[in-house]
C-alpha cells in the first residue's frame, strides 16, 4: 500500500463510515511521504561516489607507487566500513548499509588488484572465496537485504569466473550461497530476499549443468528442490516468493517445448536416462508434498504438472498435444484455486496463462489447415468470448468477496466494531401516545 493510494482513497472511506478520521491519520502516519525514495538515495549516492573515486584511481593506477596503491586500497576499505558503522550508530540504516555494501565491493576489488599488483597468478578461486565469505558474514551481522543482494551477485560472479575462466565448478561457493544465505532466508523470509536468493541459486544450478555437460532437463531437479524448500517455510509470503522463479523457469520450458518441440532433434539435449531422472525428481516431489501437507498447502500441488517429462514422447503431434494439455491443466488449476480463495490477483494470473495456452494451441493446431481469413476470424471470436467470460467471472468473485469483507468488519449487531460511527435512530415501539401509522 502506498501513501498516494491512501491519500486518494481514504477520504471516501471516512465518508462511507468505514474508518474514522483518527484512523485515517494513523494510516497516513504509517506511510510517510517518499519514504522509499529517501531510503534509496543514500545507497545510490554512496555507490556513485565510490565508483567515481575508483575510476579516478584506476585511470592513474599504473603510475602510482606500490605502497601508495596498498594504502589507497586499505584506506578506502576501512573508510567505508567505518563510515557505515558511524551512520548506523547515528540511526541512519539506509546510508550505513549502503556504505557497508560499498566496503564489501571494495574488498573484492582489493583482492583482485592486489593479485595484479604482485603478479599472483591463481588457478583456483581461493582468493575470491574470501569475498563470498565476507558477504555472508556481513549479511548476518547487519541483517541487510542490500548485503544479501550483493552477496548473491558476488557468488554468481565468482561462480561464472570459475566456469568461464577456470573450467571448474566451485562447490564451496555454491555451498556458501545455498547454506549460508539459505539459513538467513529461513530466519528472515521477506519477499525481496527470497526472490533474489532463488534467482541466484538457479544461476548456480545452471552453471553446474554446463560444467557437468549434463542434459539441460537435470536443471529442474535442483530448481524444484528450491521450490520444495518454499513449501516448508512457515512464512507463506517468503516461501511463495522463493517458489516463483523455479515455477517461471518450468513454465517457460514447457511453453517452449509446446512451440518448438516438433521433431526428435531435441532428444540428445533433453532426454536424460529415464529411471535416474524420474527417481531424483520423484524424491524432490516427495519432499515437496510432505512440506505442503505439513503447512496445509496441498491445494498448490497441481503446480507440479509443469514438471511432467513430456519430452520423452516423440516429436510432432503427440508432443504438442501433451504439452498443451499440461498448460491447460496448470492454467485451470490456478483459476480454480483463485476462485476458491477469492483471490483477484491469482485470477488474473490464471487468465493470462489460459490465454497463452490458447494462443499456442491456436497457432500450432489450426494454422496449417485453415484459411487465414477464417483463422483470424475464429481466433478473434474465441478471444472476445474468453475476455467476456473472464471479466464476468472476475466480477462474480469480487462481488462474492464484498459481503464477506463487510461481515468481517461488523459485529454481531451489524454495527462497525473498528470505530464508533453515527448510530442510526432506533424506531420507538408502538404506544398509546404514539400509535403505528399505516401510510
From TrEMBL:
Domain DUF2157 as annotated: residue spans: 12-147
Residue stretches of biased makeup (Low complexity): 419-431
Keywords, alphabetical: Membrane, Transmembrane, Transmembrane helix
Region (Disordered): 407-439
Regions that span the bilayer: 37-61, 67-87, 99-118, 130-154, 166-186, 206-229, 241-261, 273-292, 304-329, 349-367, 374-390
Domain of life: Bacteria
Keyword Transmembrane helix attached: yes
InterPro entries given in the database record: DUF2157 (IPR018677)
Name this polypeptide is given: DUF2157 domain-containing protein
Organism: Hymenobacter frigidus
Amino acid at each position: 500500500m502506498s501513501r498516494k493510494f491512501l491519500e486518494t482513497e481514504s477520504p471516501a472511506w471516512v465518508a462511507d463510515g468505514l474508518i474514522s478520521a483518527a484512523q485515517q491519520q494513523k494510516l497516513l502516519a504509517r506511510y510517510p511521504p517518499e519514504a522509499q525514495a529517501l531510503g534509496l538515495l543514500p545507497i545510490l549516492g554512496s555507490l556513485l561516489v565510490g565508483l567515481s573515486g575508483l575510476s579516478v584511481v584506476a585511470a592513474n593506477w599504473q603510475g602510482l607507487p606500490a605502497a601508495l596503491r596498498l594504502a589507497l586500497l586499505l584506506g578506502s576499505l576501512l573508510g567505508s566500513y567505518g563510515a557505515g558503522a558511524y551512520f548506523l550508530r547515528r540511526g541512519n540504516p539506509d546510508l550505513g548499509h549502503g556504505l557497508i555494501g560499498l566496503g564489501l565491493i571494495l574488498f573484492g576489488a582489493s583482492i583482485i588488484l592486489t593479485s595484479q599488483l604482485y603478479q599472483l597468478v591463481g588457478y583456483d578461486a581461493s582468493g575470491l572465496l574470501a569475498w563470498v565469505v565476507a558477504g555472508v558474514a556481513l549479511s548476518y551481522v547487519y541483517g541487510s537485504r542490500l548485503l544479501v543482494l550483493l552477496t548473491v551477485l558476488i557468488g554468481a560472479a565468482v561462480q561464472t569466473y570459475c566456469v568461464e575462466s577456470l573450467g571448474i565448478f566451485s562447490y564451496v561457493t555454491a555451498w556458501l550461497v545455498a547454506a549460508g544465505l539459505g539459513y538467513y532466508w529461513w530466519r528472515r523470509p521477506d519477499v525481496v530476499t527470497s526472490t533474489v536468493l532463488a534467482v541466484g541459486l538457479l544461476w548456480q544450478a545452471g552453471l553446474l549443468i554446463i560444467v557437468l555437460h549434463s542434459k539441460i532437463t537435470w536443471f529442474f531437479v535442483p530448481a524444484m528442490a528450491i521450490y520444495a524448500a518454499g513449501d516448508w517455510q512457515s512464512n507463506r509470503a517468503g516461501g511463495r516468493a522463493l517458489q516463483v522463479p523455479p515455477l517461471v523457469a518450468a513454465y517457460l520450458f514447457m511453453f517452449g517445448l509446446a512451440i518448438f518441440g516438433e521433431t526428435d532433434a531435441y532428444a540428445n539435449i533433453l532426454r536424460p536416462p529415464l529411471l535416474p531422472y524420474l527417481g531424483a525428481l520423484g524424491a524432490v516431489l516427495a519432499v515437496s508434498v510432505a512440506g505442503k501437507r505439513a503447512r496445509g498447502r496441498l491445494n498448490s500441488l497441481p503446480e507440479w504438472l509443469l514438471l511432467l517429462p513430456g519430452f520423452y514422447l516423440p516429436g510432432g503431434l503427440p508432443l504438442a498435444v501433451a504439452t498443451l494439455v499440461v498448460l491447460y491443466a496448470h492454467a485451470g488449476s490456478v483459476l480454480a484455486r483463485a476462485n476458491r480463495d477469492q483471490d483477484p490477483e491469482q485470477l488474473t494470473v490464471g487468465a493470462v496463462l489460459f490465454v497463452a495456452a490458447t494462443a499456442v494451441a491456436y497457432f500450432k493446431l489450426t494454422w496449417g489447415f485453415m484459411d487465414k481469413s477464417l483463422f483470424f476470424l475464429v481466433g478473434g471470436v474465441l478471444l472476445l468470448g474468453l475476455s467476456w467470460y473472464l471479466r464476468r467471472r472476475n466480477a462474480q468473485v469480487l462481488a462474492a468477496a464484498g459481503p464477506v469483507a463487510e461481515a468481517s468488519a461488523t459485529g454481531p449487531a451489524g454495527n462497525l466494531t473498528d470505530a464508533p460511527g453515527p448510530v442510526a435512530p432506533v424506531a420507538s415501539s408502538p404506544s398509546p401516545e404514539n400509535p403505528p401509522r399505516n401510510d
